[in-house]
Design a protein that fits this description.
- The complex is a heterodimer.
- Chain A contains 5 helices and 12 strands.
- Chain A is of the alpha+beta class.
- Chain B has one domain.
- Chain B is globular.
- The model of chain B has no long low-confidence stretch (mean pLDDT about 85).
- The chains are: A alpha+beta, B mainly alpha.
- At the A-B interface, helix 2, helix 3 and strand 2 of A face helix 1, helix 3, helix 4 and helix 6 of B.
- Chain A: It comes from Gelidibacter salicanalis.
- Chain A: Belongs to the MreC family.
- Chain A: One of its GO terms (cellular component) is plasma membrane.
- Chain A: Keywords: Cell shape.
């Protein structure tokens, strides 16, 4: 017994090192599996607060660009609204009658990264603003990512520039679907894989979200086809997609809630019997 | 002693904040970021309790990990370089280390550079290997280690020269 205690005392630095190294490996492996990175994420109170203060200072330098983006979006929405030929005088807005499938909330990005292989964003809305896990995050130009963790006031968002991200996407002109992934090489491009080789692809085609998942609405813009080739299996295309969003510069975002998600999921869930 | 402890605590907090608020967002050439917070480990007084030192290094890496959503990669790298630091101290400074009387602002440029580079490259290698976590991308790991490592070394040398307390 004495010898065991002596051994522990003599090698205590090595034992502490082994323990802590094991702990950090555990956290690393946890963070590599989807929806298991519960313990360490930047949407907690302390880190969220620090980023909030820093963002409060930093956002003033970006106001001109933010205003331009908002103006551009307003112009687009106005041109849609005034060309719709609606009877704008007699529209009755009744919140009970509106049977909308998606609810949008605005949020601001506090922290954005794009140089690692697993990138996350932190936004300034959390549980208190009814943001929940698996809500989609988009901007006026295209998709950004999926909410992965929430705290009281902040949420962390799994960016599409993340090797663990896999988003259902399709060609805009036909219904050929694939998955949007990222090969870590450039923040400007993502890759669309598993898209059938019978799809009529052309450079410049628009890629949009597929609407097969319950996260994003169908038809949210993603990017354009930059180049494509047949994958090693020979049955599918691998498409290099140039993203519409400049992922290195994201200020305001919209969080999308699919109000019918639970209904769709309960329908799709395989029966136990 | 209390003054030294306070000094170390202040350095701990300031380096984390500077790292996560400024140096994590440099993204030079798209992906090169310096990780200057490991100056804390490099310049930690050599004659101190080693167990405490390894634990502090873990805490340091862990804080940076939480801020940058990276699991435990910084913590793992920091713990490792903190544990193997005595080997490099002995290797670079030889006899001076045996008397445990290194003053980091009095050593000459050459041995300082060797000591800094060794620890920084080991830290970056472990960190990127764990972050990318894919043996088939070994070239990407080495490339990131090399470029970020050089950037970090330059910045660390500059910072230690700027903030050294040697007055002439």
């Amino acid at each position: 017994m004495q010898q065991i205690i002596n051994f522990v005392l003599r090698n205590k630095t090595f034992l502490v090192f082994l323990l802590l190294f094991g702990l950090s490996l555990f956290f690393t492996i946890q963070s590599h599996s989807y929806h298991k990175s519960k313990y360490i994420h930047s949407s907690n109170l302390v880190t969220g607060g620090v980023y909030q203060v820093a963002n409060g200072i930093g956002q003033y330098f970006n106001l001109t660009n933010e205003n331009k983006a908002l103006l551009e979006e307003n112009r687009m929405l106005k041109s849609i609204v005034y060309n719709l030929d609606l009877d704008t005088v007699n529209i009755q807005i009744d919140s009970i009658k509106l049977d909308s499938a998606y609810k949008f909330r605005t949020a601001q990005v506090f922290k954005n990264s794009y140089s690692h292989s697993t990138n996350y964003l932190t936004i300034n809305k959390g549980k208190r603003d009814s943001i929940k896990i698996d809500y989609g995050v988009i901007t006026s130009k295209g998709i950004v990512g999926i909410v992965e963790n929430t705290s009281q006031n902040f949420s962390s968002v799994l960016s599409i520039l993340n090797t663990r991200s896999r988003i259902n996407a399709q060609l805009k002109k036909t219904n050929h679907i694939g998955s949007l992934v990222w090969n870590t090489e450039s923040a400007e491009f993502a890759q669309l894989i598993d898209i059938s080789k019978f799809a009529p692809l052309a450079i410049g085609d628009t890629i949009v979200t597929g609407g097969q998942s319950t996260i994003f609405p169908k038809g949210v813009l993603i990017g354009t086809v930059n180049s494509y080739k047949i994958d090693s299996g020979g049955d599918n295309y691998v498409v290099n997609v140039k993203l519409f969003n400049d992922m290195t510069n994201i200020g305001h975002v919209y969080v999308v809630e699919n109000l019918q998600a639970t209904e769709i999921k309960s329908l799709q869930k395989p029966k136990d019997d | 002693m209390t003054k030294e402890t306070l000094n170390i605590a202040a350095r701990f907090v300031v380096l984390i904040l500077v790292q996560v608020l400024i140096f994590n967002h440099i993204n030079f050439m798209g992906y090169i970021n310096p990780y200057i917070y490991i100056i804390f480990i490099i310049l930690f007084p050599a004659n101190n309790n080693r167990t405490l030192f390894v634990f502090l290094a873990f805490l340091l890496g862990f804080c940076v990990d939480i801020f940058s959503d990276s699991g435990g990669v910084h913590a793992a790298a920091c713990v490792t370089i903190a544990y193997i630091r005595p080997i490099f101290l002995k290797f670079t400074f030889g006899t001076v280390y045996d008397y445990q009387s290194i003053k980091f602002n009095q050593i000459d440029f050459g041995s300082k550079l060797t000591y800094f580079s060794a620890l920084i490259f080991i830290h970056h290698l472990i960190m990127y290997a764990l972050e990318i976590f894919n043996i088939s991308k070994i070239l990407l790991i080495l490339q990131k280690t090399l470029f970020s490592g050089i950037f970090t070394i330059i910045l660390c040398m500059l910072i230690t020269i700027l903030f050294s307390q040697k007055r002439k």
